[in-house]
Amino acid sequence: xxxxxxxxxxxxxxxxxxxxxxxxxxxxxxxxxxxxxxxxxxxxxxxxxxxxxxxxxxxxxxxxxxxxxxxxxxxxxxxxxxxxxxxxxxxxxxxxxxxxxxxxxxxxxxxxxxxxxxxxxxxxxxxxxxxxxxxxxxxxxxxxxxxxxxxxxxxxxxxxxxxxxxxxxxxxxxxxxxxxxxxxxxxxxxxxxxxxxxxxxxxxxxxxxxxxxxxxxxxxxxxxxxxxxxxxxxxxxxxxxxxxxxxxxxxxxxxxxxxxxxxxxxxxxxxxxxxxxxxxxxxxxxxxxxxxxxxxxxxxxxxxxxxxxxxxxxxxxxxxxxxxxxxxxxxxxx
Length: 334
Fold this sequence. Notes:
This protein has 334 residues and is mainly α. It has a single domain, classed as Orthogonal Bundle (Ribonucleotide Reductase, subunit A). It has 11 helices and 2 strands. It has helices spanning 33-44, 55-60, 66-97, 101-129, 137-140, 142-153, 166-193, 199-231, 236-257, 266-283, 298-307, and strands spanning 314-315, 320-321. The protein has a two-stranded antiparallel sheet. Strand 1 and strand 2 (320-321) form a beta hairpin. Helix 1 (33-44) packs parallel to helix 4 (101-129), helix 3 (66-97) runs parallel beside helix 6 (142-153) and helix 9 (236-257) packs antiparallel against helix 10. The longest helix is centred in the middle third of the chain and has 33 residues, at 199-231. The chain starts with 32 loop residues before the first helix and ends in a 13-residue tail after the last strand.
């Protein structure tokens, strides 16, 4: 186990795992500048859920079709599970295996952001739905429970009370990447597709997406690559299989949760999730999907319309700062 305070350390370049750091977060001279850049992005993206206007959504939700209402509830039920579980996984599990203090700072900040997202869903329950039912869906709805069990199973290595191998540390980064970069987008698209009716909810999801896709996703892409670099382990085959399977799991849940919602045909869902997965494989520099993807499909267009805001942006995957603003999120960088 890493030491939190270690003044005897002579380590000058912090390793991402298995290091011997002093424990001091030196933002002036970071071992890897990319983590400082990500941290600065996290600060710039900070937001307050109370500022999102949901007044119109309280009336608009009553005008949703039965299929749209079901999709709305089941999507927020899934997002509640994702954010609640990852808040604790980050601080109790993931942060403990990371030994670069600046990366630790990013993870600590991320945990707070995930808790903030959980807080934001209270506004959906109270102000829009007038119910806490969405907090119980993860165990009442069998399809959601099945998906939640699969997501949580990727973290089982932390529940076995033993030392974590380097390969397992690399897999933990992939588990987080699947959550941030596959599962969350599969939820965002549903709320954004209902955005013409549920404008406040769509705005809230846009704020959340800036955290998940703009900061958290590139954090774990880089952590995975740096674990490989620092330890020499290679789980690329398993990583690719895991990302693809995460996409397949989300396809099944989307088919179930959006049944009867305009625009969510089986072909469109498959195409959208293939696009999401293929982007993740590209970022990880893994073999891309063989199938053709129609980037002009409606779901991809909706996703891009909410996530590409034509503002200045930072390419965290290349580690080069172009400029930065709270509004920046460009899927061309993902």
